[in-house]
Write a structure and sequence with these properties.
With 308 residues, this protein is α/β, with parallel strands linked by helices. It has two domains: 33 residues, no CATH class; 268 residues, Metallo-dependent phosphatases (Purple Acid Phosphatase, chain A, domain 2, 4-Layer Sandwich), CATH 3.60.21.10. It contains eight helices and 19 strands. The strands form four sheets. Strands 6, 7, 8, 9, 16, 17, 18 and 19 form an eight-stranded mixed sheet that branches. It has a six-stranded mixed sheet with strand order 10-11-12-13-15-14, with helices on one face. A three-stranded antiparallel sheet has the order 1-2-5, with no helix packed on it. Strand 7, helix 4 and strand 8 form a beta-alpha-beta unit. The protein is globular. The relative contact order is 0.14.
Length: 308
């Protein structure tokens, strides 16, 4: 327990309390305000089907994220893009090759939600083109499984108004996560969500699924990102392209157009194997960020990337 020592005619600070000098006694203690600060971590596309499912059955799903669990658990809040539904359906992509039927239709085993939570993931973005791979029932099973495991969610697989945002408070910092999904959303709705969060004095962070695969951000995406910042976004995180995208600072706001892959079975080029995590520190409403490079290993794990 912290305390203050009182010495007549002197100012003494112990811990977080201040005793002010006062002739004949000591004024009441004044508690110094603690700056509100939250640390968030963002990862890119996460896919637990095909080869990753094979590895998970042989070595356990936790093996896939075993290199990163300490990093993912280190932040106050960790957010990733869940690139497909969690269901009880059989996989149609397992054992297929590129171009074969079902190769790009994903479903992840029911234990995936618990694996994410145990590895440090707090929130799953579900606003992407693969979340509807098993229809409305697949979405419903995903939400139920995530909720049961204690993983929050937000996103717009069907542009459902109540799923467009997720508002929370992290270490005293009010934050609103806003989804953008190229495949199922109206721009006006996203802009309104951002502006509404800003008006309520929450910090709006936009997590997007946009653009084209294996290339940089097209001009339409750049224009959209600037509109989101103009509406009040404090940080923009992108996914979908499966490669690390460009970084831009616009009007003082960091824009990461794509984080690339976080868990995936793509090894055909250095670009798809190398992705990033983004660490964001929010302090008194100001957001600062840093990149953490990661790499897909051919044994199914994703590990920190050695840049030496």
């Amino acid at each position: 327990m912290k305390c203050a020592l009182y010495i007549s005619g002197a100012l003494l600070i112990v811990g977080a309390f201040v005793a002010l000098p006062y002739v004949g006694g000591v004024l009441p203690l004044v508690t110094q305000p603690t700056p509100r600060e939250a640390e968030l971590l963002f990862g890119g596309d996460v896919m637990f089907d095909r080869y990753i499912r094979d590895v998970s059955e042989r070595r356990g799903q936790v093996y896939v994220l075993s290199c990163l669990s300490d990093v993912l658990n280190s932040a106050d809040y960790t957010v990733v893009n869940l690139e497909g539904p969690i269901t009880e359906y059989e996989s149609t992509s397992r054992g297929t090759r590129d171009g074969e039927p079902g190769h790009y239709r994903f479903t992840f085993p029911p234990e995936t939600a618990a694996t994410l939570r145990g590895s440090g993931v707090d929130v799953a973005h579900v606003g992407n083109n693969h979340m509807r791979d098993f229809g409305s029932e697949g979405i419903a099973q995903t939400i139920a499984t995530l909720t049961a495991a204690g993983v929050q969610h937000f996103g717009n697989p069907n542009d459902t108004p109540e799923m467009r945002t997720y508002a929370t408070t992290v270490r005293g910092v009010p934050i609103t996560f806003v989804s953008w999904n190229d495949w199922a959303q109206a721009e006006a709705a996203a802009v309104a969500s951002i502006a509404g969060a800003r008006a309520s004095r929450s910090v709006p962070i936009v997590y997007t699924h946009w653009g084209d695969e294996y290339v940089g951000a097209p001009e339409r995406v750049r224009v959209l990102a600037h509109r989101f910042v103009d509406a009040g976004a404090a940080l923009i995180i992108g996914s979908h392209s499966h490669v690390e995208g460009e970084y831009e600072r616009y009007q003082g706001v960091d824009i990461y157009y794509s984080l690339g892959n976080l868990v995936f079975d793509q090894y055909f080029s250095e670009e798809v194997r190398n992705g990033i995590l983004v660490r964001a520190i929010i302090k008194d409403g100001v957001v600062t960020t840093e990149r953490i490079p990661v790499r897909l290993e051919t044994d199914g794990r994703t590990c920190l990337r050695n840049l030496l």
